[in-house]
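Q: Structure tokens for this one, please.
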Amino acid sequence: MAPELDTLPAPPPVATDPDLQVGVEDLARWRRRLTVSIGPERVRRERERFVREYGRSVRVPGFRPGRAPGEVVRKRFGSKIEEDLVRHLLREGLHQALDGRGLDPISAPEVHELDLDESDRFRVVAELDVRPEPALARLSGFRIEVEEKPLAPDAVERVLERLGEERARVQPVERPAARGDSVLVDVEAADGGSGGTEGHEVIPGSGRSPAELEGVIEGTRAGEEREVQAGDRRWRVRVREVRERILPELDDRFATEVSSSPTLSHLRERVAENLRAEAAAQAHGEARDRLLDAIGDANRVEVPESMVARYVDRLLGRGETARGLDPAPQHAHVHPAPRVQAASHAHPGHAGPVEHDDPGLAHDPEPGAENDGRASREAEITRMLRPAAERTLRRLLIVEALARREGLDPTEEQLQDYLRERADPDHPYEETRRSLEQAGRMDELRAHLRTENVFRFLESQSSPGTAAGSHREPAS
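A: Here is the predicted structure, written as tokens:
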């Protein structure tokens, strides 16, 4: 089979050429067959261009660099030139065909026929999937309630304790490691494989390191060694040092050190406010997802298998997407708002995900039978991700289709108003916008505003209980 489109370098932009003929055949649902033919005159022009480029860039014995005649270059590098020519014609022809017919591909074309005949006529037949346009006939009559959960009684204290732990002092001790201690360890492979780390901090009972590692470390002293099994690998762990963590007093002084709050009671109020705002945002986001799911079910919105597969591959970091072949943008989730600060500042009460430190126990196994186990685990992870990926893409297709149909893309005025209202008071609007542009997050912000516009439209179509309204953002 010929190489796929996304394995080839992007061609330079070219003007519309009357020597290019394109045929498009609708197959099942979102599948299309492209037949692209490029005439002899254009093929010969491209071949001569490649000959000139080779002549400038390669060294030919007996000639100064760039001075070899075209006949000599063709004779010496003819097969390579023809190979590059076919690759270029394939890439250029398919791109022009897609652009000229307004097709939005979501999969790399599968090339079924590829021919450059003796008369220099080039022909390629390829099939690909295009982004579906859902027919959204029913948009009203849905009643989706916002299910906001009350704040847990100890939620505020847990946040304060976490803030205190982040500012804990450490003091070396001559005793076995206990839960909550800071233990420095060296980790190396005990099974002949590779991987490991030095000076890694483990806090037994914290959940920050793999459970197997935290469990084996508790009760050890400095200088002792243990072995631990983690998945298919076995590791040797040597304890460097056991250190007691001394937590700060939770008082007014602590409040001023970790925030702009003058007292601990004021800090507690701010933390509670942020937690309630984040809970409300999460509840609204979940309700919006349920609304989109209900619309998708009512209108039988389907997602192409190729779109799901490429999205899962992207989540797992497997392979790059081709130009114009992205199954979904980075902002695949349709409800979160990006933070619009010139610089990133954590705010008390932000309940982020628990992250696990990596002491090297997840290092890739050596070649051999263990790679089979890794492939099996990857397949299982892929299987687990697919349902959520399909739901995310279906919601995205609905939002995009409504935005196009109803003209709900954000205006420049809406974008400016949003930034001015939410920018950090210490940074002017211009600085905030420049910071987002430099970070490449303006498209993310536009996508968020597009989603907000879509939900306002849906709210106008549905009953009052529908979750389509805006929500409060955490105080900074």
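A few notes: The two ends are 56 Å apart (CA to CA). The chain has a mean pLDDT of 83.
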